[in-house]
## 1
Amino acid sequence: MDKETKKSPLISLEHISKSFAEGNVIYQVLKSVNAEISEGECIALLGRSGSGKSTLLNLISGIDKPDSGRIVIGGVDITALSEHRRTLFRRKNIGFVYQFFNLIPTLTVLENVLLPLELNGKNDRSRALELLDEVSLLDRKGDYPDRLSGGEQQRVAIIRALVHDPIIILADEPTGNIDKETGHNILDIMEKFIRKRGKNLILVTHSKEVAKFADRMLLLEEGVLKKQSREIVW
Ligand SMILES: Nc1ncnc2c1ncn2[C@@H]1O[C@H](COP(=O)(O)OP(=O)(O)OP(=O)(O)O)[C@@H](O)[C@H]1O
Ligand SMILES: [Mg+2]
């Protein structure tokens, strides 16, 4: 394919390095990480505890900055943006799903779902209600998160991650804190929502079964990102 017709990747990680200092010791968590992710791709990110998976998600979302290297998303070099612009970029383009749901306890279910819209200066209540209906939680809209089960909270968190129509969903062990069966249900919902809308997903998981749901697996090993073949037996 010649240069003109080659489609550029949606996310491009170019020689990303990141270290953390602990006292006098500096730990290099990510070592010149390179990856290209195409539009609509679902990626499973694997690696041992402490291998830097969450650190990498924080860099892709622009919460943190790499020490060196570039992260280009949809043609925008987010590493070159000011912190304020990076925050605006994140609010608009990224949705998050966390292991511990991270719903705001003092807001109702509906208010939690509306939050990403409000941060973008929108108040599309009907869209929030429609999504709540899609995950069968419309009748819980006035409840506070602590009245919901873990699986229900995660369903709210999934639609909160999608309500503002971001281009990328980052999910950090989204089924890590719920039972297996509910976890499957959560993954089915995520898959349905994300594939239907052609969104990108980067899913951190320790589970081989969960990783199967992705188009491609990437493995972090001692700070180096490697392609993981599906054939490898774990
Ligand atoms: N803000 C920070 N300050 C200092 N060290 C950090 C910071 N964030 C991460 N680290 C260190 O970087 C390494 C990678 O952490 P990270 O949370 O990215 O791992 P992980 O792969 O997500 O692990 P887990 O599977 O347990 O969630 C760890 O050694 C961690 O202690
Ligand atoms: Mg982590």
Note: The chain has a mean pLDDT of 91.
## 2
Amino acid sequence: MHTRLSFFGATGTVTGSRFLLEIMGRKFLVDCGLFQGLKKNRLKNWEPFPVPPSEIERILLTHAHIDHSGYIPCFCKQGFSGKINCTHATHALCEIMLHDSGYLQEEDARWANKKNFSKHKPALPLYTVEDVENALSFFQSVHYGEDILISDGLRVKFKDAGHILGSSFVDIKTTVNSKTRRFLFSGDLGSPMRPILRDPVQVHEVDYLILESTYGNRLHSSDHKQRDKELARVINESIQRGGILVIPSFAVERSQELLFYIRELEEKMIIPSLPVYLDSPMAINATSVFEKWTSEYDFQAKLLLLEGKNILRPGHLRCVKDVEESKALHDVKGPAIILSASGMLQGGRILHHLEHRLSKSENTVLFVGYQAEGTRGRAILEGKTEVKIHGQSIKVKAKIENISGFSGHADYNEILAWLMGFNRPPLKTFIVHGEPNSSQVLADKIKNLLDWDVVIPAFKESFEL
Ligand SMILES: [Zn+2]
Ligand SMILES: [Zn+2]
């Protein structure tokens, strides 16, 4: 059986997931993500895709994060006209995230034209909101576990990856002349025992595994039970300092997780009920998607629903959609919590809050997520005493806190524990979606501890399987 797997992204980096699987001449793309972060990576978004998108039959999408879905509108512009399969919740979240991405692309182009720094005159967006509308018309979503029979002997299934709402492993099974092959793309593998989400499904039998390695060289600093304690400490200390607690947060998942914890800490009276401003239209919309897809909650979250709890709504929650209302938050005196996006401080309303709050020592900035190379968030975490925001230098005087236990990615022990549940080693395991050191450390651990055949593919590398 002729099968070929090619890696067109997420090699040596955590962004741009794009994997081409060719099975007997039919082409499938697993994930269609945008490159983000470093400029040399971002420039890859502007190169034509190495295989004409019109030749690709389907996109199988693991989850809604832009580094997995954000290239889809571009792909459709280049002639893709097949189906895009994913889970229902991924579809709902993509509607929000891709619209936002299209809007940001248009804004970037407008900004480049205004400042005249683009080589292209006029600067064009990578794609527009209209391109996003077009791309969304190709989506065909399914439930977890539902068989998608593509043809005789070729079926696809989505299994819960426990990373964000709707996130999945793509499980592809081919049968030719009664010989069966299974491919599993991990997408992003969730960290178990997180609130709201189910744990990643245990997979047993796989021939080829494509595995992410974001946290391949790290352990989460605090264990799961410590996370809410740490959050309580940061909130209570921020109340003592009398300032504002600003939390840059990814609009999808992390924001809802934080709302969940804050409500719970309030209910247990570990923290007082204080004003919580959710200042991100995208996070507000994502919260509505969460409140619609309660079927995807884990057991504990469902039990809380049965008890009549509004699990994503702390007592003094205020959802701030309006721009004027967002600006008015600059006059709010502490104690209060402002949750805003983007999570890596690359844009969005969070920048206005930091512009006002970062240089005052009574305030606190709490990081609760992965900060990629080249982002402002990473610079602040690495101890930079000054950062540029909207062209101005801002001194970093606020207390900087970081709780890494909130990560949506499994750390290396959690990955290894998941791999230990396999019945047998895959024929080959491909390590992707990590900075070079993370991928290497994880590959070594898998080789040494499990004795599996592991490879770290290079950009555009292809394998005959
Ligand atoms: Zn992700
Ligand atoms: Zn990812």
Note: The mean pLDDT is 94.
